[in-house]
Amino acid sequence: MTNRLVLVRHGESEWNKKNIFTGIRNPDLTDKGVIEACWAGRVLKSEGLRFDIAFTSKLKRAQHTLDIILGEIGGPTPEVIEDAALNERDYGELSGLNKEEARAKWGEEQVLAWRRSYDTPPPGGESLKDTAARVQPYYRNVIWPHVAAGKNVIIAAHGNSLRALIMHLEKLDEHQILDRELATAAPQVYRMTDTGDVAEYRELVRSEGRDSGLG
Predict the structure, then answer these.
(1) Active site includes 203?
(2) Domain tally for the chain?
(3) What CATH number corresponds to the domain at position 43?
(4) Which of 12, 36, 64, 88 is catalytic?
(5) Is residue 212 part of a domain?
(6) Considering 10, 64, 126, 158, which one is annotated as catalytic?
(7) Which residues, in sequence order, are CB contacts of 154 under 8 Å at separation 6+?
(8) Is residue 77 situated within a structural domain?
(9) pLDDT tens digits, the chain, 215 residues: what are they?
(10) What is the rounded CA–CA span in Å between residue 189 and residue 7?
(11) Is 88 a catalytic residue?
C-alpha cells in the first residue's frame, strides 16, 4: 500500500487526564495513553501499513506515541523528523490551568471563545488560524513531496496542529474545521492523488477517546 498519509493524535497525556490546557507544555503519556498508542500501532499493522518516513512535533507525548506505533508495526524503522511546526497550539496564559480555573479567572464565555473560535487567540497564545499558518506551509514544503513521491507517511502530532492540516487536506472552511474532533491515538488514513487531493479517507477509531480540546 503506497501513497498513504496517516495522521495520529497522541495518546492520552498526563494533562489530558487532569483536563488541563496543555499547548506547548510537555507532559508525557499516561498508562492509558501508552495503551492507546499500542492499539494504533496494531491496527495500522493489521491494515498492512508500513511507513517510509515519519514526522512528529518537538513534544514528548507525540514523540512517545510515534515510537510506540512504529515499535508495534515492526520491520525497518523509518526516518523520523521532529519539527516545532507540528507542535500543539500555544494556549498562552491558559497553559497549566484546568477549565474550572480558567473560567474562574476569565469567565465561561471568554474561555469558550478562545477554545472554539478560529481566529481569537488566548492571551499570549495562538489561535487555530495562527497554528494553521505554520502547519500548512510545513506540510506543503516538507511533507507533501514525500507523499507525492509515492511514500507512506505518518504524522504523530496534536489535536489542533492536525486540525490545521486536515483543514488544508479536506478543503474545510473556518467553521467546518471547528466541528472536527479527533480521538486520541485514532489513525486518520488518507490516500492522496498525485495533485494533492484526497482520494480516500478512513478513520480507525476505538469506542472511546474523543477530543478534550485541551491539547
Answers:
(1) no
(2) 1
(3) 3.40.50.1240
(4) 88
(5) no
(6) 10
(7) 5, 6, 7, 8, 44, 51, 54, 55, 66, 69, 78
(8) yes
(9) 568 999 999 999 999 999 999 999 999 999 999 999 999 999 999 999 999 999 999 999 999 999 999 999 999 999 999 999 999 999 999 999 999 999 999 999 999 999 989 999 999 999 999 999 999 999 999 999 999 999 999 999 999 999 999 999 999 999 999 989 899 999 999 999 999 999 999 999 876 545 555 67
(10) 7
(11) yes
